[in-house]
Design goal:
This protein is mostly helical and 181 residues long. The chain is built from four helices and two strands.
């Protein structure tokens, strides 16, 4: 285990960037749903959703690669808390990867390109399979989204538990600009 007692500034930056991106991805799809069909803003919000989703995927891959070469600080709390935390983190990582991948595959299998800003697009390169695209849509919008939300709530609840109940530094050492000694 690493002897440092806080996360590095890189780890903190990637953590909070992903948190911000997930919030923005969610907001963009919600805003898309509020705009009537035919309004150009509806397309704008969907392009924002695709772009933010792709960005989240890229940042998450960077985070995983970076984390593979950098040990985290020793976890706080009892053995059960540590195991639950490790499991929740692993599932969070999986969901954050699975959401944009299933979204892209859903469009691919629906025979659609994925528009990005500046008239760029990820072309459809997979053969169309509408039935599979519909199943991926159910997976993306239903199961994975709800699982991601539940894991985020669990993650935040765990951090608050550590802070208010255990009264340890778990939350403080992930806050930006904090360096614990």
């Amino acid at each position: 285990m690493d002897t440092t007692n806080t996360w590095t500034s890189t780890a903190k930056t990637l953590h909070w960037l992903i948190a911000f991106l997930l919030l923005a991805v969610w907001a963009s799809v919600e805003l898309h749903e509020q705009v009537p069909r035919g309004d150009p803003w509806r397309d704008y919000w969907m392009i924002a959703h695709f772009t933010l989703g792709a960005t989240t995927l890229a940042v998450m891959v960077i985070r995983i690669v970076w984390r593979a070469g950098h040990r985290p600080p020793a976890p706080l709390g009892g053995r059960l808390q540590q195991r639950l935390g490790a499991t929740a983190h692993g599932l969070l990582y999986l969901m954050v990867l699975a959401m944009p991948v299933t979204g892209l595959l859903m469009r691919q299998l629906d025979g659609k390109s994925t528009p990005l800003p500046g008239a760029l697009a990820i072309p459809a390169w997979l053969p169309a399979n509408t039935a599979l695209a519909e199943r991926l849509e159910d997976l993306h919008e239903g199961l994975l989204w709800n699982a991601l939300l539940a894991l985020i709530v669990l993650h935040v609840a765990g951090a608050l538990w550590h802070h208010w109940v255990d009264r340890d530094a778990t939350l403080k050492r992930m806050l930006p600009g904090r360096r614990l000694r």
